[in-house]
Amino acid sequence: KRQMEVIRPKVTVLLGAVSAGTLVGKGKVMSEHGTFVRKDGTTFLASLNIFVERDGEGRRIRSKTIGRDITEQKRAERELRQSREELRNLSVHIQSAREEERVHVAREIHDELGQMLTKLKIDISWLKKRLPPADSHLLQKTDAMSSLVDGTINTVQKISSSLRPGVLDHLGLKAGIEWQVREFKEKTGINCRLDIDAALAIEDEDTTIAVFRIFQEALTNVLRHSRASDVAVRMTTENHAFIIDIRDNGIGISPTKITKATSYGLIGMRERAHALGGTFAISGHPGSGTRVLVQVPLDKEKAR
Fold first, then answer.
1. How far, in Å, are 19, 120, 272 from residue 279 at the CA level?
2. What's the whole-number mean pLDDT along residues 78-92?
3. Radius of gyration of the chain (CA)
């Protein structure tokens, strides 16, 4: 009763509504979170716990109300949500800017540098045809120059593809994923089995790029951390959503690594999926491999 007397003089109007109660022994506890008005006209947010005790016939014996001003707590929660949303928007902006820069650099490398190297290759061939057949030393030198140019052209193509695979832009996500799987198997020697829906087609460019980058990062994590010898990838569409399911037979991942603040690869995959209105989940136990499951809605309007 004394606690009720402390609260009642301060609160004159209740703008919220009392929520359903919880039975405790022979009594009932009701909780309220709402906006209240003091006698001086100022408002505040409060959390009230009202305990009502009744006898065996249902008559109220006593009641007790405990209130707590949560104005600052709610303000801090709003600021935290806003800050988190701003950081996510910044992350999306940075990723978008990075993709644009990758496209620009890849195009410059492929077109400008590639053309110059091709011209150099033609000039070396022209020069070789005009050398005296008897001058074996010069002929060997031009052959070596030509081989060096060929190797440089291959390197330029690899760098360009690593920045932004041309097959992804020209043939779409399905072809891009198939290309990435072949590259992964050739470079690492890790068996990678791909089960992809033949009818899979994603027209939206942002979704295509995000899904491809998530897949790339997942394979990178397999190579760096899993010690796996086999990876199974399934890509399909179910219930108007695109699904990526990646499993390996490696050493697994611990819960602490999943939630580690410096696991930037995992954070990046999670944020890419979130930006598309999708979900990202990773699970595993030491010694039993790791599973990455991503679901992205195909209809952005429904996702919102």
1. 32, 49, 9
2. 79
3. 32
